[in-house]
Amino acid sequence: MGAAVATAADGRTGFWTRLSDLLYRRSGLVLALLLGPPLLWIGVIYVGSLFALLLQSFFSIDEFTGMVRPELTLKTYGELLHPANLDIILRTVVMAALVTLVGALIAFPIAYYAARYARGRLKAAFYIAIMLPLWSSYLVRVYAWKLILAKEGALTWGIERVGLTPLLEGLLSLPVIGGPSLSFSYIGTFLVFLYLWLPFMILPIQAALERVPASMIEAAGDLGARPGQAFRTVILPLALPGVVAGSIFTFSLTLGDYITPQIVGTSRLFIGQAVYIHQGTAGNIPLAAAFSVVPILVMAVYLTIAKRMGAFNAL
Amino acid sequence: MVAAVHLARASRRFGATLALDAVELEIAEGEFFGLLGPSGSGKTTCLRLIAGFDHPSQGHVEIFGQRCEDLPPYRRPVSTVFQDYALFPHMSVLDNVAYGLMVRGTGKAERHAAARDALALVKLAGYDARRPSELSGGQRQRVALARSLVTRPKVLLLDEPLGALDLKLREEMQVELKSLQKSLGITFVFVTHDQGEALSMSDRIAVFDHGRVMQVGSPEAIYERPAVPFVADFVGGSNVIDGAALALPGLPPGLYSLRPEKIRLGAGDDGAQVTAEGEIVAVLYQGGVHRVTLRLASTSLTVLVPAAEARGLSVGARQAVGWRVADMHRMEGAG
């Protein structure tokens, strides 16, 4: 009788109608069809390879034959503690931390302006300005920066024209961060990283600030908070999930990058380059795997601290 | 005595629209003052000028005699209860209420004690540790109220304070707000579009329309003696009648307001001096009364008819009505 009622209501009985009816009755089936493929993809290909990677890091390499010995050991992790390898880790983590910190400092005012004040065309212009760099190749942008930062490059020329060359030379003569030119120093690497990952910091902060109602900021002022106090006690805590999300991007992208430090900067290695060399030319897959576990651990520690400090309380 | 709040010919222009047009308003200390008007009439803009979130394009605002052009919100002795309450989601109820004292540098023990007192005042003792997201709408509003009161403002501004509450809660809060204001002696200025709320709570009301104050007065004055047709219509839906159309000898010309409950069915009944007849256009059941709309030759009339008398009224039929001349109020302000 039910079918008769349905046919009476409208004459549709085709294949697509019956399929729609089936999916309507069995909502679990819809969910399975929607989630199945991506879960398989993530489960098998992504988590599976991550697990394989983890497993590899507990293997070691035979010094004589150069073959991987498939026995569980912590020997490879011990190798990470060699001064040369520790240097690489420290260099990368410090660079990633600085890029994240300065990135957040630069991104916040931009994101704040975009979220609070920009409307209509101005907002569209903001999105285009932030996203436009992402439309061109990463390599093109890094090489462009190499030219900008080179000794004969635009930046040096500009600095010379405004008479600040002594300042630049002073900066480049500093130990560790200095070098023969900006494009052959950590300062150069830092500037390029900062430029590359800035959109990934601005957008999450902007999204978080967008969700803070204007009345909440007004309420803080209304209750007697000076602008600085309102920022510290209301705006920043409410935007913190966005800052943390952005910092996850900038931090992990810097930790894993192996191209930028190769093009701009000193010849000293970053984690990404170490992984690249060990799994490629050196054929030391276990050490490469152990190196790539480092960023995962660093991120885990970072997120734990962020959570302890209440970064996600406003979520 | 100096006024608690004085808007001195304050205007606010947003681009091409004039949201507030030379508003002149004095609110006395200790008054429960209602700003009433339809949405977009400028009443919330008015409140924002007093709070300091916005500044007049022309004219100025004085709070207790002090001109406020250069006074940011955090230095004004006023506090706002926001329409959306604007509670801080990342703080507990207690920290929300203590916020105003915290930014003033009050010690933790002292400000928490004060916050507990304020919570007790709004009957929310024991809710200290809750998050705003764990409270009902009515409770959130009480927290917002406590948070504003804890800093002891001289003027409390309330933006549609009861708008988001259901009817029963709204009536409860009306009584509570009123008694709270009496016991604290603080000046309350509240914005509402609900004329019933304005009438029952305010000592005085300012009725707004298109950025202008149409009338200021006590609820009785506003209700019984509207100055202009807009007030007559907006506050309780009075009929507006052109005196000339009645052709009564000795009646001064002009526009008159006539409350719908003053009109009786039938002509020549208990001393009715004016009679009219028209076609019934609509009969709306409203519980105790029926709201009947009659179309006359030149105008239409709304009549409130007790349920017992409303039997037999049907749309399309002709009906005679009558009222006393004394119940007609001539609107002086109508040009």
Keywords:
heterodimer; A: 315 residues; mainly alpha; 15 helices; 74% helix; 1% strand; B: alpha+beta; six-stranded mixed β-sheet; five-stranded antiparallel β-sheet; 9 helices; 26% helix
**End-to-end C-alpha gap of chain A:** 50 Å
Number of strands of chain B: 18
Q: Ranges of chain A with pLDDT <50 over ≥5 residues?
A: none
Quaternary state reads heterodimer
> Could you estimate the helical fraction of the residues of chain A in percent?
over 70%
Low-pLDDT parts of chain B are none
Can you count the helices of chain A?
A: 15
Task: Describe it.
- The complex is a heterodimer of chains A (315) and B (335).
- Chain A has a two-stranded antiparallel ribbon.
- Helices cover 74% and strands 1% of the residues of chain A.
- In chain A, helix 5 packs across helix 10 (186-210) and helix 5 packs across helix 12.
- Chain A has helices at residues 2-9, 15-25, 27-57, 75-80, 83-116, 121-135, 138-149, 154-161, 165-172, 186-210, 214-222, 227-256, 260-263, 271-279, 285-308, and strands at 60-61, 68-69.
- In chain A, strand 1 and strand 2 (68-69) form a beta hairpin.
- Chain A is mainly α and 315 residues long.
- The model of chain A has no long low-confidence stretch (mean pLDDT 86).
- By secondary structure, chain B is of the alpha+beta class.
- Chain B has helices at 43-51, 93-102, 108-121, 137-149, 167-184, 195-201, 219-224, 229-234, 243-246, and strands at 5-14, 17-27, 32-36, 58-63, 66-67, 78-81, 155-159, 187-192, 204-209, 212-217, 239-242, 255-258, 264-265, 274-286, 289-295, 300-306, 318-323, 329-330.
- A 6-stranded mixed sheet of chain B has the order 6-7-8-3-9-10, sandwiched between helices.
- In chain B, helix 3 crosses helix 4.
- The relative contact order of chain B is 0.12.
- The model of chain B has no long low-confidence stretch (mean pLDDT 89).
- Chains A and B meet through helix 11 and helix 12 of A and strand 6 and helix 2 of B.
